[in-house]
Write a structure and sequence with these properties.
It contains eleven helices and eleven strands. It is α+β, with helices and mostly antiparallel strands. It has a five-stranded antiparallel β-sheet. The protein has a four-stranded antiparallel β-sheet with strand order 1-2-3-4. A hairpin with a 6-residue loop joins strand 8 and strand 9. The radius of gyration is 24 Å and the shape is globular. It starts with 8 loop residues before the first strand and ends with a helix.
Length: 311
């Protein structure tokens, strides 16, 4: 992986995954070894989306790209259990609600037979507010699945951010042989957007009703215009390594505090003022003890700053 060893935390205290023990890591980059019934020669590298952003700092430091990393990895006897590609649509080209409507009206053509939807709502005093909708194409147990969802709603709900209604995410999830095949295609084509477009074109097409009512075969139905525009513009999307603030974790923690804890703290401040309480709530809070996870997070942030200076 070409990560300097002094940046890695050895003998991590976090949890591993089924049949694997966590032995080293850097923030959301996890190195695991098999244990128990999962015994095999080798190790597993696990990177979440934010872990990929972490690793891009090391790629930059080594003057490499993801293609360099994948090419180097493929020299070994390796397997790719799962790889996700994500396209962030901020224009937005598509409406998730409209895609769900098209699905419900049968205006969708796909090789994938399992199609479902999900939406969550919040009851307020005046009405019902949406917390975001998702459309799933493909079984969650299959080797390939497409998920369309409203990322802005997810971020607002999860971190208390202001709602960004113009943010959709379209995820392509590859598993097992499909993931291995994806890596082969990426190394051959070296254009992530073009590969994503090819997969989407092959797996799904949203339709609109034909003007001629005598047309009954779906393959002859015209393509839903927003989908057609979106697919034409995928090659124009520049997919590159994003710069993510190194204190992103603490920023998310701050946003969570403002949403979930700040009202209670403010209530205590008002109560202290009403009772002429001389105790300062913030002074009392300063004596709080950090748990191991919080200490580890601060240590990781410190390493991020070191890495920035190192680069």
């Amino acid at each position: 992986m070409r990560i300097p060893l002094n940046f890695m935390e050895l003998h991590c205290k976090g949890k591993g995954i089924a049949g694997h023990e966590l032995i080293a890591g850097f923030d959301n980059i996890k190195i695991l070894k098999p244990t128990g019934n999962a015994q095999y020669e080798g190790f597993q590298i696990l990177m979440s989306g934010s872990g990929c952003r972490d690793y891009e700092k090391f790629l930059t430091m080594n003057q490499e790209t993801w293609f360099d990393f994948l090419e180097r990895v493929c020299r070994y006897n390796v397997n790719f259990p799962r790889i996700d590609l994500a396209i962030d649509d901020r224009k937005t080209y598509l409406s998730i609600s409209e895609l769900i409507r098209l699905k419900n009206e049968g205006l969708i053509s796909s090789q994938l037979r399992d199609i479902s939807e999900n939406h969550s709502d919040k009851l307020t005093e005046d009405n019902i507010e949406s917390n975001g909708k998702s459309l799933y194409i493909g079984s969650k147990n299959s080797d390939f699945r497409i998920i369309f969802y409203e990322k802005g709603y997810e971020q607002a709900e999860k971190f208390g951010k202001e709602l960004d209604i113009n943010w959709n995410r379209y995820e392509l999830r590859f598993r097992k042989k499909k993931a291995v095949r994806l890596v082969q295609e990426l190394l051959k084509d070296r254009n992530v957007a073009r590969v994503a477009m090819s997969v989407l074109n092959d797996k799904v097409r949203f339709l609109q009703n034909p003007e001629n009512s005598s047309v009954t075969r779906k393959r002859l139905y015209p393509t839903y215009l927003p989908w057609k525009e979106f697919m034409q513009n995928i090659p124009k999307i520049k997919l590159c390594m994003d710069s993510v603030p190194i204190d992103n974790y603490l920023q998310k923690n701050r946003e969570w505090l403002i949403k979930n804890v700040a009202p209670s703290v403010k209530m205590q401040m008002i109560w202290d003022k009403m009772n002429n309480n001389k105790n300062d709530i913030f002074k009392e809070m300063s004596h709080a003890r950090l748990n191991e996870k919080q200490k580890s997070a601060l240590q990781t942030i410190e390493k991020h700053y070191e890495l920035e200076n190192y680069i």
